[in-house]
Amino acid sequence: MKKIFLSAFIGLLITVFGQASTTGAQTLGKDQLVIGITQFPSTFHPNIDSMLAKTYILGATRRPFTTFDADWKLICMLCTKLPSIENGLAVPEKTPDGKQGIAVTFDIRPDAKWGDGVPVTAKDVVFTWEVGKHPQSGVSGLEFYRRVYKITVINDNKFTLHYDKLRFDYDSFGFELVPAHLDEAAFKAGARDYKNRTTFDTDTTNPGLYFGPYRVTDLKPGSHVVLEPNATWWGKKPHFKRIVIRVIENTAALEANLLSGAIDMVAGELGITVDQAIAFEKRHGKKYNMIYKSGLIYEHIDLNLDNPILKDRRVREALVRGADRDQISEQLFAGRQKVAHTNINPLDWIHDATVRKYSYDPKKAAALLDAAGWTVKRRGIRHNAKGEKLSLELMTTAGNRTRELVEQVLQSQWKQLGIEIRIRNQPARVFFGETVTKRLFTGGAMFAWISSPESVPRSTLHSQHIPSEKNNWGGQNYTGFNNAEMDTLLEAIELELDRDKRLALWKRYQEIYATELPVIPLYFRAEPYILPKWLTGIRPTGHQGVTTLWIEEWGVAP
User: Fold this and answer.
1) Structural domains present in the chain
2) What is the pTM of this model?
3) Which of 3, 40, 41, 112 is the most exposed place for a label (fewest CB within 10 A)?
């Protein structure tokens, strides 16, 4: 009976979510690849909204100036040579107000062209910077635009960034280019509405938006994106004539589509969950190449610190102590996803092994809630002296089976402490595009940050980056964390060039993070890649450099 029911269920999912297996690469001479992911981007603009689905898709169509490779080394992609003080491309200088800054010169690859044949030039760099530094443009990652106070254009392919401070990561370029010849008019028409008028969303298939191995040639919102080779790409010719990235938000349906042949692979960055992958491998692992890549992917719950309940640090600690994260890791992920105590992964050299840790301790959690004034219980739920209920809302991306299961486990564990948890999930593009970005969640928002090695989380923790209507929701400090010492520390870390001294600062950073608990750390994710046996060239990085940044290396085994 179980086998019959499963077959029928898979057949139903294929009918609803997939297409016939003839769409797969195996029946088209392997010149088409169909990839399954779980989210559709809220925007295709590379610098608006932080969303992994967009990063994954655009990784095939664009190239950043710099990125970290699979060996966690910083490399050039759009530039020709990494600048350094030693090679003379980075020169310490005084800023106009007499402070210590640095001038960093980049060369753009001379063969880089947008998909419509227009050369990629320093004009695009200046335009992108002007958009990003405007307080109402809605661009994320505001700090990079602020720290560059001037750009000197040397020629079409060479420019110098003048930084207001000498930071240790001066050689890392902080934004993705926007084509001035296509988007300048939309920006000049009004910065506040620019995010709604950008060509990336009004004319997404315009070839002039892309300069990577592929360009977007077709899409259906919420359904799929089609990529085809970009004729102006300067590098190795990509193997596949057509790549379809199909969005299947329900992870059970994603697995069903893989088994049916409606998709060829599941992206590790944004696909099947670890628990599903482990179960899938037991049943079907011999037919696929399975890769589990641990890395800098931090699953956590952002807490809205404007909520009067969550303003109290004792309540935040009670939530952490009342969550059995070790049990969640072992039972759901077979221990493959290690419990996190801060946002710094033990794989990163700056990790402090002595940082404060909170073990599962419901008695201590209850005592903290008592001390915070939540002492009266009515029908199992705590109330304070004013009669207010200890009730919080928890949100995440709808359709992600594992996140929803984790929510339910936490809901049950916290209810035992007398905390009411109301679950309200949303589709990813609404959750990230509106709710998280505009801080519309009232309690907790569960999602993941993916970062690079030794990435300074200024945009997520500095008080200047709290999203608001004033900055057109451009920041990423969604918790509203406002801590003067943390602000000072983040700035000091950026300015310290000596690794040993910087490590001491990172230690203090982790102490504050673990003490103040602006978020609830859950675990560091492992990305499960499920690949067909015939596909070659995919090398997961374990950080925010998605595999599609090297998509021209993907191919078919002989």
Assistant:
1) 35-61+195-293+527-556 (3.40.190.10), 66-183 (3.90.76.10), 295-525 (3.10.105.10)
2) 0.77
3) 3
